[in-house]
Design a protein that fits this description.
Radius of gyration: 17 Å
Order of helices and strands: HHHHHHHHH
Helix content: over 70%
Number of strands: 0
Number of helices: 9
Length: about 200
């Protein structure tokens, strides 16, 4: 078993390594509120458009394409202080209404997108793929606004993607999402402490 895992790791393409490393460093930088995180996210998402298409995870293809747009928005939003002198965005909590909207979006969009993928494509586990997509959309939007709850939605999405990539035989990507879960947990703890400082 270990020998088989090692063979999978050594057979991993350079592009999967590139996407994985860019993603890990990008998440770490986002925890530390470094603007450079967004440039690394652009690299990671571009790579995962290609990998997701290969794995027939079509919702993930769409997600990563959309994330490129959100990353540009996040980059501009976080860098406002550098270009205009306006105070940078502080970490805060989403409102109750925003959380209700987010959860409703995830639930109904998962049903709609998952159903469409099931009927019209050969997508692998379409409802799980769709749920991870919708949770990731929510998390990425919240990250761009510096809402602390973004880390909960990342953990949900990352748990699903961990299972999907592992089931498809992408060991390095599965390891990547395991690391993402750990980093998201750390992000939640660090950002929660920062909110207490701001209060």
């Amino acid at each position: 078993m270990l020998e088989n895992a090692w063979q999978q790791v050594t057979a991993t393409s350079w592009i999967e390594w590139l996407g994985s490393l860019a993603g890990i460093i990008g998440v770490y930088f986002s925890i530390k509120e470094k603007i450079a995180a967004w440039a690394l996210f652009l690299v990671c998402y571009a790579v995962y458009i290609y990998l997701s298409y290969q794995a027939e995870l079509y919702a993930a293809v769409a997600m990563n394409a959309f994330f490129i747009v959100i990353s540009i928005y996040g980059w501009l939003n976080w860098s406002t202080a550098l270009t205009t002198g306006i105070a940078s965005i502080n970490i805060s909590k989403a409102t109750k209404n925003e959380l209700i909207v987010a959860l409703s979006f995830i639930f109904f969009s998962t049903i709609g997108i998952g159903g469409a993928l099931h009927i019209f494509t050969s997508a692998y586990m379409p409802y799980l793929d769709a749920c991870a997509l919708c949770s990731s959309f929510t998390a990425q939007w919240m990250l761009s606004r510096k809402y602390v709850e973004n880390w909960f939605f990342w953990i949900l999405a990352d748990l699903i993607y961990l299972g999907l990539w592992l089931a498809q035989g992408y060991l390095v990507s599965a390891i990547l999402f395991t690391i993402f879960i750990s980093l998201a947990t750390r992000g939640w703890l660090e950002w929660r402490r920062k909110i207490e400082v701001y209060s």
